[in-house]
Amino acid sequence: MSDSESLRAIPAVEAVLNDAQFAPALETLPRRLALLVIRNYLNELRGMLRAGNPAEFSGAELLRRLRQRVRPSLRRAINAQGVVLHTGLGRAALSVAARDALRDVSRNFCNLAIDLETGRRGERYSHVSDLLCELTGAEAAMVVNNNAAATLLILNTLAEGKEAIISRGELVEIGGAFRMPDVMQRSGVKMVEVGTTNRTHLRDFRAAISPETGLLIRVHMSNYRIVGFTKEVPLAELVALGQEFNLPVVDDLGSGALVDLSRYGLPKEPTVQESVVAGADVVCFSGDKLLGGPQSGIIIGRKRFLDAMKKNPLTRALRCDKLTYAALEATLRLFLDEDSLITQHTVMAMLLKTQGQMQRQARRLLRGVKGLANRAEFRIRTGTSEIGSGSLATEQLPTRLLAVKPKAMSPDELTRRLRCCEPPVFGRIENDEIVLDMRTILDEEIPLIAAALSASLDG
Fold this sequence. Notes:
four-stranded antiparallel beta sheet; Aspartate Aminotransferase, domain 2; globular; alpha/beta
């Protein structure tokens, strides 16, 4: 077939719209969106032919594209990768209480910025500030849209045009190429690094203080570790130095923990309360990591410093909406009762899931795929999970895995097919097998994963 004949073989838009095989898919899409999908596909084919490349109209491919547009771009996914705080998959899975709060606030109006007593305009921070002060012992609290924003706001408010002194070993880079030196520059402060990569002493901070110094800052190395011949300045000593020179001390905790994880057999992580007790003037941390809430940056500390931040014009650009406050308040309330926290808080429940619980889940999933033995080999084995998102970066947790070795396709192809299921399933590849990690799989997701495996292995 010549190129001109191939071009004529591509149907017109109207012909596609009137073709019965596309009717069910077209009924679920707005006409404008359906036309966009069809025209883009047909133009793509014509472009390939004109460029001398083979191309042929495929009703199945067009149906796939139409159905793909029916689904929302952002949708539920199953995390079988074993990374509890997975940035790509939305970080913390919210608790039932947080999901209920989101539903109630999103379907109605709410008192986001109205004082119920006076009926006048109120402060949105009030919905969580008392809770945060109760849980941490701080004088005041506020919330912005993530911890990078919190760091930016703190530095800009307290030390714009001045110097901020930081240990060289704490010049962190986190995901998305966010670097502490860059955010310091954007905040309007001059960074002064002291010490060496592996060792910083109190005398290094003291020697760097000048009339131009605006604050001292400590940044927790939550996504890496320096081991061996090391030295870092304890926060209490840095606070004493700050008080001596009348300089505020900022503690950027990154992940931020509100409970002592070591009490539950997990690796020790500095708690927010410990920073407050040590005397830090301002502390910031993430709401969507170990806290297990929505994306947010939490700032606590001295009232006079937070009052200044609330007046900073940047604050309006960095503030959170009603959905964040609803989910965050519900999440914080769980920490008021630590006994029930480990069962009602999704992140804590995943972190503390026992080997017995995960073995039972793996056996249940294995039973669900027993009819697929001719298409893949299945076995339960041990492995390790990660906490993720820069939290306790070097620590791994023992877990149970269902290993899948497909017989008629590569592991890469099977993982691609699993991601194309509804809902998409995300596993990982180890030693030429796909492994599904029970630590991050919810009980109600077991039959969904079994169905996805069946559909993917059947093609």
